[in-house]
Specification:
By secondary structure, this protein is an alpha/beta fold. Helix content is about 30%, strand content about 15%. The protein has a single domain (about 25-345), classed as Ureohydrolase domain (Arginase, Chain A, 3-Layer(aba) Sandwich). Helix 8 (about 225-235) packs across helix 9 (about 270-275) and helix 9 (about 270-275) packs parallel to helix 10 (about 300-325).
Length: about 375
């Protein structure tokens, strides 16, 4: 079947859905061209069908293609940002990495090398998992490309800084402990967002604080509000090279039932998207969206949420490129104005400072700001 694509500014975009029905044709992310159909890509979306590191419900190996199918309804213009991301950047779907499902160590090495290969020409990666084990090799590659440890914002119900499971050092619950130990994270600029639920003990939080992590719980997001949380996160990260890792279980199961380790009391998809929109101008160098397990999804609720998160991460990269072009290379403060209200929040009338303060400020109270007793 002929592919009738939108082409703007010399960039090959998605299939024109006004001429080819959305439910037909190959399911690349947002119906974008494959990597082999373009000369080069500014941003590549790549799948990692791997879930050998899970500790509870499996199935995230099928997540990337589920997200691609759910992304068929995405459109070229993102009004929340006033940006057409596929016009600003050449974005392409790089397909899936082929990783060993029976050998975690080999899989990690393969993911790291593939990420380095894909980013060799300056391409930025937005990766679709897969379980959270894959974040470690992706962080290794991001740090190597940046030439320094990277800052990280980790959206998740869980800390993922445990030491081992059943003696195994590499699982979906341990990647960020390993990353700190390997020196690939800037420990002055790392934070969990959206955590909640029971832990094994208070030592989990003590260890996490010792590694340098701040914590913004899902309750903090609820009581503080998006604008305050964004302002504090921006202040903490600054202009450092930033990696964003999104475990879809950061969302409440009402918004993301299709995941391996669901926890009640999570963020809404609206809150997550608005927080990401508040990062406009931050120095994003890579991102992932992981732990989508289609077997537990209903009516593509989780897949749709994950596809929109990935779309907004791509838009963040495109908005930064557009802002840099408009301002001659000095746009790193975009979105951090109006008293800290994110750009997306301003568009919808959110006024910073209007939220309740019952839990104490996120990021306040310790070396990196994890609230005492969290």
């Amino acid at each position: 079947m002929e592919e009738i694509r939108i082409e703007t500014n010399g960039r090959l975009g998605p299939i024109d859905s006004s001429r080819v029905p959305r439910f037909s044709g190959a399911a690349t992310f947002a119906r974008l061209p494959r990597l082999d159909q373009v000369d080069r890509a500014d941003v590549a979306l790549v799948g990692v069908p791997f879930d050998a590191g899970v500790s509870y419900r499996p199935g995230a190996r099928f997540g990337a293609n589920h997200v691609r199918e759910a992304s068929r309804l995405l459109r070229p213009y993102n009004p929340a940002w006033d940006v057409s991301p596929f016009e600003e950047l050449q974005v392409a779907d790089a397909g899936d990495m082929a990783v060993n499902p029976f050998n975690i160590n080999e899989a990690i090495e393969t993911i790291q090398q593939n990420a380095l290969d894909l980013t060799a020409g300056g391409t930025r990666l937005v990766t679709l998992g897969g379980d959270h084990t894959i974040a470690l090799p992706l962080l290794r590659a991001a740090s190597e490309r940046a030439g320094e440890p990277v800052a990280m914002l980790h959206f998740d119900a869980h800390l993922d800084t445990w030491d081992t499971y059943f003696g195994a050092e590499y699982t979906h619950g341990t990647p960020f402990r390993r990353a700190v130990e390997e020196g690939i994270l800037d420990t002055e600029a790392i934070c969990h967002v959206g955590t909640r639920g029971p832990l094994y003990g208070k030592k989990d939080l003590e260890d996490d604080r010792r590694f340098g992590f701040g914590i913004v719980t899902s309750s903090d997001v609820y009581y503080q509000g998006v604008a305050e949380v964004v302002a504090k996160l921006r202040d903490r990260i600054g202009d450092r090279p930033l990696y964003i890792s999104v475990d879809i279980d950061v969302l409440d199961p009402a918004h993301a039932p299709g995941t391996g380790t669901p926890e009640a009391g999570g963020m809404t998809s609206r809150e997550l998207l608005e927080i990401i929109r508040g990062f406009r101008g931050m120095n994003l160098v890579g991102a992932d969206v992981v732990e989508v397990a289609p077997a537990y999804d209903h009516a593509e609720i989780t897949g749709v949420a994950a596809s929109h998160v990935a779309y907004d991460l791509v838009t963040l990269l495109a908005a930064n490129a557009a802002d840099l072009q408009d301002t001659g290379g000095s746009a790193r403060t975009a979105g951090h104005n109006d008293g800290g209200a994110p750009a997306g929040a301003r568009a919808h009338g959110v006024v910073p400072g209007g939220s309740r303060k019952l839990h104490g400020d996120p990021l306040a109270g310790t070396a990196l700001g994890a609230p005492e007793g969290r």
